[in-house]
Amino acid sequence: MKRVVIIGAGASGMLAAKVASDRGYKVIVLEKQKRCGQKLLITGKGRCNITNNCEIEELIENVPTNGKFLYSAFYTFTNDQVIDMFNDLGVETKTERGKRVFPVSDKAVDVVRALEKQMRSNKNVEVLLNSKVDKIEAQDGKIKKVILSDKREIECDSVIVATGGVSYPRTGSSGDGYKFARNLGHTIIKPKASLIGLEVMEDYVTDLAKLSLRNVSINVYNSKNKKIYDDFGEMEFTKYGLDGPIIKSASCRMGDLSKENYKIVLDLKPALDEDKLDKRVQKDFQKYANKNFENSLNDLLPKQLIPTIVKLSKIDAYIKVNQISKEERKNLVHLIKNITFTVKNYRPIEEAIITSGGVKTSEINSSTMESKLVSGLYFAGEVIDVDAYTGGFNLQIAFSTAYLAAINC
Ligand SMILES: Cc1cc2nc3c(=O)[nH]c(=O)nc-3n(C[C@H](O)[C@H](O)[C@H](O)COP(=O)(O)OP(=O)(O)OC[C@H]3O[C@@H](n4cnc5c(N)ncnc54)[C@H](O)[C@@H]3O)c2cc1C
Q: Per the database record, which ranges form the RsdA/BaiN/AoA(So)-like Rossmann fold-like domain (predicted)?
């Protein structure tokens, strides 16, 4: 019986195990953690955005790095098939804003349990936990065996490397797959953080830490003052800068920060243009005419934000509202729609949702996920140099590439 070793029991490894075992192969899954799917458990803030319910072409458009490499994978195991698979496994799904698909239960743990149960349902699958792979050996350009860190050796015909990237290393993904691939002659495109929080120059963000904002918009400008991205939705302040969905999405449109400067302009009231917002502020100023300025913004802005806006507006916090000039009011309105942050740094890669970089795609056959350098060596998931925006696209990559590797291994 053909023996397939799968390294990693994350999203891609668990699916690959099921598919390969259904082909009648003996499958040995090696997972270094004591449980399967540790990263999956924290996906989508514990809700797991399984995939995106869009057209296949849109899936590809949402993969800025090497999206075209995924044509075969996405068309062979589609987002519809992912949804059907979970429904068949008893995980009912729902589609939310932006066609994001979640389990109805809103529990990532249900996704992990379903994938693990499915994987273990075939008796040809053996799952070895606490089993860290140290090396993959090939002979005459063909896979021979894997060697574990406790020196156990497992002979096999094929290996699927499903070890993930380097972000959130406590979940088990710490870049081991890059080492295996490099030792076997593959090129590794330097890993870098993607979908990550941003550190900014403006120190006052520390006062705003933990403040979440909804229904705000951002515009991102490069050094040439060219708008490179805009978005609308949720974000939050941290003690070092900005984070949350729209900031993470912006981060993966930004390049090398040592070569390019970026500014993020935050609009706290995108639904109102400056004229409408001005009318709204005038109404509040009439209501609070005899109050101090610092006490006049409670109806308009979150409490935690008010002292910062007051400071940035350069209007005296203790001036009576009825003494604020028209020009000061207009400047305040402009400020509320244009709070500008200068990006200093990305947060460390360990905090990234996604690792950009990994095994070079031109060295992998995109129709099979097999290495072009070593026969019997396959790659699946985040270890490959592909990465997508938020919206369930990254898990779809994991599932589609795993499926393709498993039907070809
Ligand atoms: C906080 C967070 C939230 C996210 N939310 C979403 C979301 O909602 N939707 C979405 O599409 N994507 C999301 N992602 C991204 C998504 O989780 C990953 O793209 C996906 O898990 C990658 O799957 P994978 O199988 O390639 O790797 P992983 O799921 O990381 O699995 C790799 C496995 O390999 C094991 N392993 C590594 N090295 C070895 C070794 N030497 N020996 C044995 N085992 C090893 C690891 O322990 C791990 O279990 C999120 C990521 C993070 C960090």
A: 3-406
- For residue 383, report the distance from its CA to the centre of ligand 1, in Å: 9
**pLDDT tens-digit series, residues 89-134:** 999 999 998 999 999 999 999 999 999 999 999 999 999 999 999 9
Pairwise CA distance, residues 361 & 187, whole Å:
9
> In whole numbers, what is the pLDDT of the chain averaged over residues?
96
What is the helix (H) or strand (E) element at residue 191, kind and residue range?
strand 188-194
Q: Are 6 and 27 in contact (CB under 8 A)?
A: yes
Question: How far apart are the C-alpha atoms of 197 and 249, rounded to whole Å?
Answer: 9
Query: E strands along 195-338, which residues?
Result: 198-200, 212-221, 227-237, 241-243, 263-267
- The residue among 22, 27, 33 whose CA lies nearest residue 2 is 27
**DSSP code per residue over 370-394:** BBSSSBTEEE-GGGBS-B--SSSHH
**What is the CATH code for 3-192+355-408?**
3.50.50.60
Ligand 1 atom nearest the C-alpha of 396 is 11
E strand or H helix at 13, and its extent? Answer: helix 11-22
Q: Which protein residue has the closest C-alpha to ligand 1 atom 51?
A: 353
Distance 195 CA to ligand 1 centre (A): 14
Question: pLDDT digits over 322-371, tens only?
Answer: 999 999 999 999 999 999 999 999 999 999 999 999 999 999 999 999 99
Q: CA 214, CA 261: separation in Å to the nearest integer?
A: 26
CB 183, CB 373: distance < 8 Å = no
What distance in Å separates the CA atoms of residue 166 and residue 351, rounded to the nearest whole number?
Answer: 9
Q: Which residues line ligand 1 (CB under 6 A)?
A: 7-13, 30-33, 38-40, 42-44, 48-49, 132-133, 162-164, 167-168, 171-173, 176, 353-354, 381-382, 392-395, 398
**Closest by CA position to 166, among listed 318, 353, 325, 379:** 353
Closest CA to ligand 1's atom 5: 43
Question: CA 202, CA 204: separation in Å to the nearest integer?
Answer: 6
- Give the pLDDT score at 256: 86
Instruction: Read off the amino acid at residue 376.
Output: G
Taking the C-alpha atoms of residue 189 and residue 230, their distance in angstroms, rounded to an integer, is 28
